[in-house]
């Protein structure tokens, strides 16, 4: 509705109000302008159809009502230090949590032992967003679902939509949440300091009431029996549950056909005095893939006298009536042998918990760890590899001994990526017959995989066909063993030296210029006589080589 409203004689009722019938402009005012290519906002001064704005009229009237007298000047100083920086609540109160301790009472129905039980809780109040998390500490073997009772959220205070805040929390007060009444008994030091600084007077802390069921059984006298009581077993289970002694030993099975010395791990469960033996097999060892060498059971140490000859041990299992004594922790001493179902196992070492247990329970027992390594095993994996038979390469033959499905051996990846060059030498066959004196060969050394190939040049009237004499292969040095061969390297290929290739002797007579350049780049890894033989071939000595390098460096670098 515009400012200039005209009823034209109609009553001022809904449906009878019209705008000015003489108005012809109904466009909205422009509020964006362009200046130097930038869009700038502009506050509208008129309404739709050039009608004046109500806010503009009121503002004009307020300006006209102002007094025309000048205000008195004020020369008071303004301290900029009094203005503190604004810090939002989620930054100032981040990671600040109030912690209260309390409990709630749970009624127990249809139980002659107890009518109610006391369940302690911990209340966390997050000052950042006024949320509350309620957690009940878990008690081991309680049989009651415990843990987080109420996840982090704002707790409703009443039916009018209000929520609990930190001002509603105090010690020795009740807090009713979702129909459960929690009684707060105490809080931590940070909570006390925070509430005191905010002007809240804290009540005196209260002790947590004791549970009637626990008090009844705590003061209940233990039963007395003339015979051995089953209560001891229950006490042993409750106190020693999940406490296991672990020993590392060696089982000597070298007397069998495929036997040897096998590392094993022995677990002694203190809850029920049972023993378990696990074999520590390596991958691809050919052993049984299941690590359980002996399942968990109680092992007899000695049997009664009348059972030795009459009991059929291969058919039936021994019961507690035939066993006189079972193995106990005092029978496992590190550094000594223990017999488990006919297996003699040497206890070499144990873990930290086992050492602490023996120092506490058996302080007189001396633990003597035995040092042992796999190299001491009589049938070591490396010694079990058969000797090299000469077929194929040594690496390929070794893969057939390590795995059932052989895989191609991996070479030096870094060397294969960095060295792609080939060193070429000219060689002559050393033969006692004068027929092969005119044969010419080219020996190529591949830096990628240290392999050598030999190609024979064809010549007329020699009676020998040229072509490939030796395909790419690694050539071992004469005198090296087949199990640990030593192969030729560029450091061994000096001009004038003899290279023995599978009972054929070749004398190196010439080489490419790149061979000298490459060997000078790795001069620290190559003997000096090898480099000198190449320098003499190209008519260079040490000084000439230095001058030639300086000359090439001066040519490649641009002049300043």
Briefly, what is this?
This protein has 560 residues and is α+β, with helices and mostly antiparallel strands. Helices cover 18% and strands 26% of the residues.
Mean pLDDT over all positions? 80
What's the CATH topology name of the largest domain? PH-domain like
The number of E-state strands comes to: 22
Poorly predicted regions: 377-383, 549-560
Distance between the termini: 83 Å
| Beta-strand fraction estimate | 25-35%
Report the oligomer.
single chain
Helix content: 10-25%
Largest sheet: 6 strands, antiparallel
Class from helix and strand fractions? alpha+beta
CATH architecture of the largest domain: Roll
Strand order of the largest sheet: 6-5-4-3-8-7
Tell the overall outline. flat
Give the radius of gyration: 48 Å
Q: How many separate domains?
A: 4
* Alpha plus pi helix count: 11
Top-tier CATH class of the largest domain: Mainly Beta
